[in-house]
From TrEMBL:
This is Phage portal protein. InterPro entries: Glyas_Bleomycin-R_OHBP_Dase, Glyas_Fos-R_dOase_dom, VOC_core. Transmembrane segments: none annotated. It comes from Spirosoma validum. Residues 6-116 form the VOC domain. The lineage of its organism: Bacteria, Pseudomonadati, Bacteroidota, Cytophagia, Cytophagales. It comes from the Bacteria. Gene3D superfamilies: 2,3-Dihydroxybiphenyl 1,2-Dioxygenase, domain 1 (3.10.180.10).
């Protein structure tokens, strides 16, 4: 059984070339605190309440990388449970302090599970 703890972050996608416009909107208009760093795939990250909002450019298409990310208590057990149910596990770039993987639901929605380490 997968033990979910909380929503950790959401990734939303913007058109290619729109990162500075997104930074201005989310930072200046919504006044979210930007999280500095060299984030995967050129993303920009913001704190929003007790979760993070990740924003990155993506070309159009039906197989999007948009996703919610849920923190779980035991990532290895979650992986075993999903694989027992025939789901394919996908990996992506590493993020310091977190182990993570992705899977897709039957409707091709991408979902990330993660566990904080160390």
């Amino acid at each position: 059984m997968i033990q979910f703890k909380r929503l950790d972050h959401m990734l939303i996608c913007i058109p290619e070339g729109a990162t500075e416009q997104a930074r201005a909107f989310y930072g200046d208009v919504l006044r979210l605190e930007e999280i500095p760093g060299n984030h995967p795939s050129g993303a920009i990250w913001f704190n929003i309440a007790d979760i993070q909002l990740h924003i990155r450019e993506e070309a159009g298409g039906n197989y999007s990388k948009r996703h919610p990310a849920f923190e779980v208590t035991n990532l290895a057990e979650a992986k075993q449970e999903l694989e027992r149910n025939g789901l394919a596990i996908e990996y992506s770039s590493e993020i310091d302090g977190r182990q993570r993987f992705f899977f897709r639901d039957p409707f091709d929605n991408r979902i990330e599970l993660l566990e904080f380490i160390g």
